[in-house]
Amino acid sequence: MEVLQCNGKLGKLRLIEVEKPKLRGPDDVIVKVAFAGICGTDLHILSGEFSHIPNTWVTISHEFSGVVEEIGDNVTNIKVGDRVGVDPNRACLACKYCRRGQVQHCQNKGARDSTGVFHDGGMASHCVVIADQVHKLPEGVSLQQGALCEPLSCLLHGWNRLQKSGCLQADSRILVIGAGIIGNLWVSMLHHNGYRDVTVSEPAQGRRDILANLETGYKVLTPAEVEAEEEGKDAELDGFDVVIECSGFPPAIEKSVAWTSRGAALVIFGCSPRDKPIKLCPEEVYRKELMVIGCLINPFTYSKALKLADAMGERYLSYERLGVQIFKLKEYETALTQLKSGGISKAVFNLNNDLFFD
Q1: Quick one: which of 149, 77, 106, 76 has its CA closest to 304?
Q2: H-only helix segments in the chain
């Protein structure tokens, strides 16, 4: 079968032929892949920003859906023919953090051992994974939408942390920074939950045009336009109550702090380079009681993301509305070019023609 592999240490991709995977043990599942996405994390790996990745060739994509083709003898949670999504993160359940219930900080597996990053993922016609990573899709969730359930599960973790902070109120004034696929999903989530006073900051015209397709009525502005709108305001009274940072661009994070109100939350969701710090005044954090919220992967949220996807439906998860484009595997270079240029919000690949429509 043909696969797309990445070597993060070399910063290279390659399209090669490998043997179709076989069951390795009684707990394994072979998924015939329908759709697999390239994530911002993959781009960071390619650019050499993640130091802990392996110096080997790995079939990429930790965001994929498909149909169960074969199961091991011990597998009971799913059956052959089920339409499924795959959670790429599997914790060890034995380290200090797992025993605390903080599986996102697992020291042995989890984000340190993800399918599609450390082990072969979904950018292939077939993928073998452990059964407890495999989740049956609800009837109302298509295979295309199933490929969005992993990013939705990460977003749900951020949403849960934001809600627990107490900073998100019914009348909150909200700023979303960055209108890639993650920013668009946050916009969709906010609108789905009834929030209407939302501004989105995005420098790329193409991405601003894509965001307009979601028909939320939100303000979609360039960073300069946001800055002009906030100039002269008393931010402590009339600033943003919540800032959701989805760009991974440290200067944008730093600038947004000055626009926050008292009691605000700054959600840092985008992946920023490790060597690019920001300046943050402790006195301002103290005075405003500013809460900074980090979000790491998807602890116990994948199954909930399936229900969320079902509820959001085509209104919010239509590929056309979100600016997601489908490619064939051999078109990966074109896909990356369009993704980096901002012409699309996300590149998703169809790995088996017979699963294009389900």
Answers
A1: 149
A2: 40-46, 96-99, 143-146, 149-165, 181-192, 205-212, 223-230, 235-238, 250-257, 282-288, 302-317, 319-322, 332-341
CB 177 within 8 A of CB 245: yes
SS3 103: helix
d(CA 57, CA 54): 8
List the one residue out of 11, 16, 83, 8 whose CA is nearest residue 329.
Answer: 16
Tokens of 118: 């450390």
188 alpha-carbon distance from chain centroid: 13
Residue 51 is classified by DSSP as T
Write out the two tokens for 331.
């078109």
Question: Residue 41 pLDDT > 90, yes or no?
Answer: no
Catalytic residue IDs = 41, 44
Distance in angstroms between the alpha carbons of the first and the last residue of the chain: 22
Residue 342 backbone class (left: φ over 0; alpha: ψ -120 to 50; beta: rest): left
Reported as a single tens digit per residue, the pLDDT across 155-187 is: 999 999 999 999 999 999 999 999 999 999 999
Kindly report the average pLDDT of the chain as a whole number.
Answer: 96
